[in-house]
Amino acid sequence: MPKTIDYFETTYRSKNVVDWYDKLDFLFPSEKALFEKCKEKILGKKVLDIGIGGGRTTAYFANIDCDYTGVDYIEEFANLVSAKHKQLKIKQCDARVMSMFTDNSFDFILFSFNGIDNMDSESRIKIFKEIFRVLKSDGVFMFSTHNRDYKYFNKMPWQEKWQFKWNYFKLCLVVLKNYPQHLKMKKHEFHGQDYSIINDIAHNFKILTYYISSAKQKKQLESLGFKNTKTFDFNGKDCDLNQKDPWMYYLTNKS
Ligand SMILES: C[S@@+](CC[C@H](N)C(=O)[O-])C[C@H]1O[C@@H](n2cnc3c(N)ncnc32)[C@H](O)[C@@H]1O
To answer: Is ligand 1 within 6 A of the CB of residue 210?
Structure first.
């Protein structure tokens, strides 16, 4: 088993990564669309936001009427967001063991920006089980995860379509500069029937990331009891097989 969690912990505790997440202050178009779609489960309801990082989504929920709780595995992030939003319930908590929450507690649970993808496969299943437990029977769980059907899955920028743009050349330079780190990490990659764990460009090739197709992700969720799983693209549009987006969004529930 690759030491996915060790690389995740070391990288996410570093000051430059904490600072990077601290500065994020936007919502993705998909998130805007899906929060709107789920508003009946959010407005005036109990919301659990898992993996809050620097508080990008916390800032959104802080401005609307809901009973919000935000958690993060990394203490540095929990402290940072707690200081920004003193009125909110922010806790350090590993989503694999959410014993601080009782069964059937939340109307809406979010694990945004592929936060679940830096855990190993066993931990991922534990997290889904815990989410299933603390989600109300009519609640909704929303998350995103990397897409193994993405047409440039596991490819370097120069294996994609050439673009005569400054950002594209800059990206190639960043990749070249960090290539030795990538070669070091590549030996930990795993390609199974159901999912892959690869070293992509995120955080300059310092972490390992879980990728799964939407069909396999739906099956995984179903095997844990989740029902009515729907998949969405970057714009929050319903889509099943998706080869254009590197990650996909999911809404699922218990009944
Ligand atoms: C990719 S970052 C996203 C941060 C934030 N949600 C955002 O959208 O900007 C993933 C976050 O999930 C957290 N995380 C990863 N695994 C976790 C776990 N098992 N329990 C709680 N938080 C976790 C990480 O510490 C990190 O802050």
So the answer is: no
